[in-house]
Input
Amino acid sequence: MATIYTRPEEYDLEHGEGEEDITFYRRLIQRFDAHTIVELGCGSGRITVPLAAMADEHDLHITGVDVSEEMLGEARQKMTRLPTGCRTRVQLVLEDIGRFQTAAPVDLVIVPCSTLAHVLELDEQLAVWRSVARSLRPGGRFVVDLTMPTLAAFADSMATPPRVLVEMDVDQESEDGVHRLIRYKTTRYEAHRQRAHVRFLYDRFETRPDDEARAQRYVSDFESHVYFPRELELLFLHTGFEVEHRWGGYRGEALRPHSRALIMVGRTPAPESPR
Ligand SMILES: C[S@@+](CC[C@H](N)C(=O)[O-])C[C@H]1O[C@@H](n2cnc3c(N)ncnc32)[C@H](O)[C@@H]1O
Output
């Protein structure tokens, strides 16, 4: 598992505030009239907490699932800042998403921010889709949120000898200006098994008025499965879902050749209407 998940504060700094996926999930809950919601790979609560903040008003019950104790610890910490009426509607569970199942059927399961890319093997992926199908009520929805494969970024891996380019893809400063995080990224792609070997190199700077700037550098390596749209669709169909939506962005844009996001919504069969 990537090192960044043992450093939740830096994970949050890396992602910044007010990202558009948060608004997307807020709206989606209302659009689907969902009241019981599971977030798989909820992490530090970047999305869970803003959803929890609307729990009392919109009668939501939210379960967040993650394998990282550190990330869940950060999510728990953030929850303490919410009003009691919201906080009591959330539970956080330490569990692998391939094994997690709800006790009672829920309306909606979401898996934001490319978390499913951490699930590498086909049998593990099928286990996730099947346990989600078992957790959902009839007509319930499973929202899978990934990034589109960026073939241009992988092209250098096809060169002989393979090249690995380094790009600086994050440069974020904390609101108080004390912390700055710069991330460099390299990706090596194995086309025959759709596997990306991602290496993040982080430089973390800390500046205090009474102190000299301090820098810390660390590497976070991880492997990632690269999902293609048709493959995603097949995972849904093979596990009994129908595919309701295919979006290429958080505003519900259609999937296009240059879409950055790959978002698919699967739906379990609705109950048969009485004759
Ligand atoms: C990219 S982060 C997303 C966190 C959060 N959903 C967000 O949008 O900020 C991926 C999260 O998935 C968790 N994760 C990865 N593999 C997992 C697994 N097999 N079971 C449960 N959690 C997992 C990691 O610990 C991490 O917190």
About this structure: The CA atoms of residues 26 and 267 lie 19 Å apart.
